[in-house]
Each structure stands twice: as C-alpha cells, then as structure tokens.
Amino acid sequence: MKTNDVDILAFGAHADDIEIGMGGTAAKYAAAGKTVVFCDLTKAELSSNGTVADRAEEAKRAAALLGVQKRLTLDLPDRGLFLTEEAIRAAAEIIRRFKPKAIFAPYEKDRHPDHGACSRIVQEAFFSAGIRKYETAGQWDAHKANRLYFYMINGFHHPDFCVDTGEFMETKKKSLQAYRSQFVISEGSVATPLTSGYIEAVEARDRLMGKETGKTFAEGFLTSSPLLIEQDLIGD
To answer: Residue 125 sits in a domain of what CATH number?
Structure first.
C-alpha cells in the first residue's frame, strides 16, 4: 500500500505541544512548499480546562494557521502514555503511512511525563518502522526516515541547532492563541501554568534562542545523531 511521502511528520502527546515547540519551524517549511503533518498521540481528555471537542476544534484551527497539510489524533490514553508495544506500533504505523523525510518529537527531558513518554515512543517507532518484518495494523511498507529531531516544550535546554523563525513568530503566536481553552481563563476554567503568561514565556524563549544565533527569534532542537555538514562551515 502506497501513500504520498511528506517532508515533516511531527508528533506530540497533546494538541498544542507541537505548536509550543516548533510552530514557527512548521510554518516556515510549510510556507516554503514542504508538506507537514502533525500527529497527536492523545485526545488530551484529562486537561484541566476545555473538552475533547474544544481541543479538537482548536487544534484544527491552529494547524490551518501554520499551513499544516494534515493533522491526526490517535486514541492513546492521556496520562496513560507509556513505552508499550501498542503505542510503538501505533506511531510506527503513522510513520509508514506518511513516509516522512524528517520526524520531530518532544525532547525527553520535560516536566510533563507524557512529553517524555511521547519522545521515547517515537524513538522506538522511528527504528521499528524501518524493519521490514515488523508488523503494524496497516499494510504499509517499511520506512526509515532520514532524521529524528527533538523540540522543547517546557523548560530551556541547550540546543544542537536552531531554526530562524523571525518571520513566523506572529504566526506561531496566533496558532497558540487558537487554544483559548488552554491559555485563557474563562468562566468555569481554573488557573494552570498555561494560563499564567505561558505564551509570553514561549516567545521569550524563542527570542533568547534568536539572540544566541544572531536572529530575532529562533526555535532550538536536539538531534538523535550528529549532523553532517557537507558544505560551508564558516557561514555567511
């Protein structure tokens, strides 16, 4: 069974994880004509604010703002993400279905356990999806992506590389603001870390990453293996 190859496949534990960590990069590559697909492992059914239906609609709007070609939501349990064979096979099937050149996942070191679990699940799926005899539910051919990268959600870590996202910071902020149930206090909602200046903190982190690289804004990433530089080592 065949499907169109995509350039970027980004995984998150919950809708809004990918936007927080790499919304600017996703928008930049989509604007350049690259195909970008998002996959949320859970429906975020245990979130303190909002409903599953709210989150699904917000995720749809956010993806559209970023130029994402397709967004999928798996049915793995919120706060029940663990390194299980079920979870690995589910992620591996998505990799085989879309055949991405590059895969992105949360960085494993994060205060939210689901983010670390998502990272570990995708790392295993990245490897297993390339094994011909490894079985997944869909009858897709084995696929080995070129690269596996990790984005930051909570916290600040020293990146292995950064992407200049200055032209797309406002787009990223709009995609985050689409999640009103998560980032805005309203009637019936409760205060959480997300409602206490979280978007502003993300913007400040991206600004700091930009200063580290001589740009206005940037997003930082970590790699699963060293990057090979084949051309100019000096830069502009």
So the answer is: 3.40.50.10320
d(CA 76, CA 156): 27
> Which of 150, 135, 145, 125 has the alpha carbon at shortest distance from 12?
150
Segments forming the whole domain that contains residue 162: 8-223
| Continuous segment of H or E residues that includes residue 149 | strand 147-151
In a domain, 231, yes or no: no
Contact 92, 129 (CB under 8 A): yes
Name the nearest CA neighbour of 19 among 152, 159, 176.
176
Report how far apart, in Å, the C-alpha atoms of 1 and of each of 4, 38, 56, 139, 218 are: 11, 21, 28, 6, 38
Given a contact cutoff of 8 angstroms between Cβ atoms, the answer to whether 100 and 7 are in contact is yes
pLDDT in tens, 160-219: 999 999 999 999 999 999 999 999 888 788 989 899 999 999 999 999 999 999 999 999
**Residue 99, by phi and psi: left (phi above 0), alpha (psi -120 to 50) or beta?**
left
Backbone angles phi, psi at 9, to 5 degrees: -120, 115
Instruction: Indicate whether 130 belongs to any domain.
Output: yes
* Total domains present in the chain: 1
Question: Three-state SS for 75?
Answer: strand
Measured CA to CA in angstroms, residue 97 lies from 57, 126, 141, 177, 212 at distances of 24, 13, 8, 30, 37
pTM of the predicted model over 0.90: yes
